[in-house]
Amino acid sequence: MTILNYTKILNAIRMNHEKYFAERKAIRDLHLDRLGDYLKEHPDEPT
Q1: Please, what's the b/e burial string for 5-43 (b: 16 or more CB within 10 A of its CB; e: otherwise)?
Q2: How many Å apart are CA 26 and CA 24, to the nearest integer?
Q3: Distance, CA of 5 to CA of 25 (rounded, Å)
Q4: Which of the residue ranges 7-11, 38-42, 43-47 would you say has the lowest mean pLDDT?
Q5: Between 7 and 45, the higher pLDDT residue
Q6: What top-level branch of life does the organism fall under (predicted)?
Q7: What is the pLDDT of residues 26-41, one digit of tens each?
Q8: How far apart are CA 45 and CA 41, in angstroms?
Q9: What is the mean pLDDT of the chain?
Q10: How far apart are CA 20 and CA 22, in angstroms?
Q11: Cβ-count burial of 47 within 10 angstroms (0-12 exposed, 13-18 middle, 19+ buried)?
Q12: DSSP 15-43
């Protein structure tokens, strides 16, 4: 294995991690937006 191959593998791993965390963040943001909408519609309900 050459250094070039090794750096290509590391770059592929990094890209996969970035994609995974970006997707998780998008899902979390969507859930928080939906929660915020619900709380705006029901401000007087006990938590």
Answers
A1: eeeeeeeeeeeeeeeeeeeeeeeeeeeeeeeeeeeeeee
A2: 5
A3: 30
A4: 43-47
A5: 7
A6: Bacteria
A7: 999 999 999 999 999 9
A8: 10
A9: 94
A10: 6
A11: exposed
A12: HHHHHHHHHHHHHHHHHHHHHHHHHHH-T
Token pair belonging to 32: 């928080």
Residue 2 corresponds to which tokens in the numbers above?
């050459």
Residue 35 one-letter amino acid:
L
Percent of the chain exceeding pLDDT 70 equals 98
Tokens representing 35 are 């929660």
Q: Which helix (H) or strand (E) holds 1?
A: none
Tokens encoding 33: 């937006």
